[in-house]
């Protein structure tokens, strides 16, 4: 019986011819698309190493793009005593930053639109009347040197000129431009914040989540000043000339051995870690971060002018506090020095300028890698004894070459739980080689403990307490002859085993172990070996702060589910 739906051999042959005739088109389309994709990858930001052709193109550019340019960060950040070498280093680093900025401009696929659909932003009530002044560009470079506006995930910022044109800018900065969680609004300050200060984080894009720092500090409100460029990804692919690479190698600024150019290439493609680029920006900050420095200078101007008009602060204006971590400390120090030089050029007395700075400004640094803090402001420097970066490059009490942290500065030091990190092989190639330099899993917890133990509610009160000298306390023996290591912190109480027991317990309770840097090194110590378990952490904290404090800290930081 015949089939109702026959498939004849002629039909199959026609179908075969159609498919056969389409193969060249398919291959051509696939090849063309691959070419466009490979061209689009060149000069774009990458989060992981791609595979590239290792052949040389017609322009003499080496297309071998899997080369990672690893900088010797210790030599990079160290100030060279030789003026000529230092000048050459700044010159070649400036050229690298310019090349990276050119890559970002060329590869930007997002149309830059300023103030586009501002009405769609979920702005706070205090900012709703200022929508026309809010910058909502999708590109991060348009927000540099501006104050972040917290409006969900959207990029939004307010320029310093708008802020400082107000009658009471620091009140607006504290109440409207600072990050405040639900806990901040309920507590109206918390146990470590009394509302007397406008706290500004001067943070590079690579700095860790300062919102987490706010939760560790019992929901303290922080404003954020954008520094540098947000590269979004972990690596940036950039084309550099061979002469620049040779200069970096001759100055010992590279970790790996540099191969001499034997093929006559003039330019090569390299990948650079964006964390390294952020550090380089701070070195050449006079060019790369000049807008950010001008913003800081304007802030200091406003704070000092407020002190001149109202030295007793009868108007109850908030006190300006600048917070900085690691490489961003250099930007803050440079801005303060520039402001001071401008005042001295106006024939003002150096002592008068330093007195005004001291009364108007408090600076808190975490793991600083800078030794050029000028005299004047009230400095608080927090770092770990086992932090290789601060020990080698920063201002601390053990600095043999002169502390350089500013006159009458206060120093808080301790040992981190991560002493085994000193054996990592990446100690000279990355600022994230040692977790003693980590803000979110060490330094901020140490500051929290000091303020919580002593009931301090402001950074200025912390500085004044550490500098307090009891005139009635007269010792009949020099403290250097004591059997213990005597460190004078004024009227502050610093438990002798704060770094052995309380600091690891606080890191565990706040969830700081979730922010640890993974160095992918075999010698990296397991986290269970350096931090206590829940039972031990609970016992240490409750012994010092009372019952239920462990649950209160976890609830504030929202890092773990509190066990019943």
Task: Indicate the topology.
Blueprint: H1 9-41, E1 45-46, E2 61-62, H2 73-77, H3 83-106, E3 147-148, E4 157-158, H4 160-164, H5 169-175, E5 178-179, H6 182-187, E6 197-203, H7 210-216, E7 222-226, E8 235-241, H8 242-250, E9 267-273, H9 274-283, H10 285-288, H11 290-309, E10 319-325, H12 328-345, H13 350-360, E11 361-366, E12 378-384, H14 388-393, E13 410-414, H15 439-454, H16 459-467, H17 498-510, H18 527-530, H19 534-545, H20 549-557
Parallel strand pairs: 2-9, 6-7, 6-10, 10-11, 11-12, 12-13
Antiparallel strand pairs: 1-8, 3-4, 5-7, 8-9
Helix pairs in contact: 3-9, 7-15, 11-12, 11-13, 15-17, 17-19
Over the alpha carbons, how many angstroms does the gyration radius reach?
Answer: 28 Å
Side-by-side strand order of the widest sheet: 5-7-6-10-11-12-13
Estimate percent helicity: 40-55%
- How far do the termini sit from each other? 77 Å
Tally of separate helices: 20
The best one-word shape is: globular
Q: Tell me about the biggest sheet?
A: 7 strands, mixed
How would you describe the oligomerization state of the chains in this entry? single chain
Q: What portion of the residues fall into strands of 2 or more residues?
A: 5-15%
Unreliable runs, pLDDT <50, ≥5 residues? 1-11, 13-65, 109-119, 559-564
State the total count of DSSP E strands.
13
């Amino acid at each position: 019986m015949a089939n109702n739906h026959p498939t004849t051999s002629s039909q199959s042959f026609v179908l075969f011819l159609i498919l056969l005739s389409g193969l060249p088109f398919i291959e051509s389309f696939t090849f063309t698309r691959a070419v466009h994709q490979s061209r689009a990858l060149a000069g774009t930001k990458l989060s992981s190493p791609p595979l590239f052709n290792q052949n040389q193109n017609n322009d003499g550019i080496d297309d071998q793009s899997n080369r990672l340019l690893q900088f010797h960060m210790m030599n990079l950040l160290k100030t060279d005593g030789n003026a000529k070498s230092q000048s050459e280093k700044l010159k070649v680093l400036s050229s690298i930053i310019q090349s990276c900025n050119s890559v970002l401009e060329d590869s930007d696929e997002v149309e830059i639109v300023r103030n586009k659909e501002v009405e769609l932003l979920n702005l706070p009530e205090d900012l709703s009347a200022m929508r026309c002044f809010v910058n909502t560009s999708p590109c991060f470079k348009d927000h540099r040197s501006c104050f972040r506006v917290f409006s969900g995930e959207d990029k939004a910022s307010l320029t310093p000129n708008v802020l400082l044109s107000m009658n009471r800018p620091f009140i607006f900065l504290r109440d409207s431009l600072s990050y405040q969680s639900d806990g901040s609004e309920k507590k109206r300050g918390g146990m470590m914040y009394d509302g007397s200060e406008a706290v500004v984080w001067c943070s590079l894009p690579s700095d860790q989540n300062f919102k987490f720092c706010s939760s560790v500090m019992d929901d303290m409100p922080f404003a954020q000043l954008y520094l540098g460029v947000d590269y979004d990804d972990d690596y940036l692919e950039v084309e550099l000339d061979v002469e620049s690479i040779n200069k970096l190698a001759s100055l010992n600024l590279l970790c790996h051995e540099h191969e001499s150019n034997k093929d006559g290439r003039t330019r090569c493609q390299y990948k650079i870690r964006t964390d390294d680029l952020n550090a380089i920006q701070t070195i050449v900050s006079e060019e790369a971060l000049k807008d950010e420095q001008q913003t800081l200078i304007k802030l200091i101007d406003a704070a000092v002018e407020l002190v001149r008009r109202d030295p007793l602060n009868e108007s109850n204006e908030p006190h300006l506090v600048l917070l900085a971590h690691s490489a961003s400390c250099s930007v803050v120090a440079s801005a303060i020095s520039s402001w001071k030089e401008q005042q001295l050029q106006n024939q003002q007395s150096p002592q008068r300028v330093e007195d005004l700075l001291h009364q108007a400004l408090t600076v808190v640094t975490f793991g600083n890698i800078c030794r050029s803090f000028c005299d004047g402001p009230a400095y608080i420097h927090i770092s770990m004894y086992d932090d290789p970066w601060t020990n080698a490059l920063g201002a601390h009490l053990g600095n043999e070459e002169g502390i350089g942290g500013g006159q009458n500065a206060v120093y808080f030091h301790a040992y981190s739980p991560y002493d085994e990190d000193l054996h990592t092989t990446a100690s000279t190639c990355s600022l994230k080689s040692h977790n003693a330099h980590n803000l979110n899993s060490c330094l901020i917890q140490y500051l929290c403990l000091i303020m919580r133990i002593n009931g301090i509610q402001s950074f200025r009160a912390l500085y004044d307490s550490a500098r307090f000298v009891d005139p009635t306390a007269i010792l009949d023996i020099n403290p250097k002859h004591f059997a213990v290591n005597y460190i004078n912190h004024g009227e502050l109480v610093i438990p002798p085993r704060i770094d052995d027991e309380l600091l690891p317990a606080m890191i565990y309770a706040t969830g700081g172990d979730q922010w640890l840097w993974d160095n992918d090194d075999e010698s990296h110590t397991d986290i269970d070996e350096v931090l206590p378990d829940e039972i031990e952490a609970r016992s240490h904290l409750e012994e010092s702060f009372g019952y239920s404090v462990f649950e209160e800290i976890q609830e504030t930081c929202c890092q773990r589910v509190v066990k019943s």
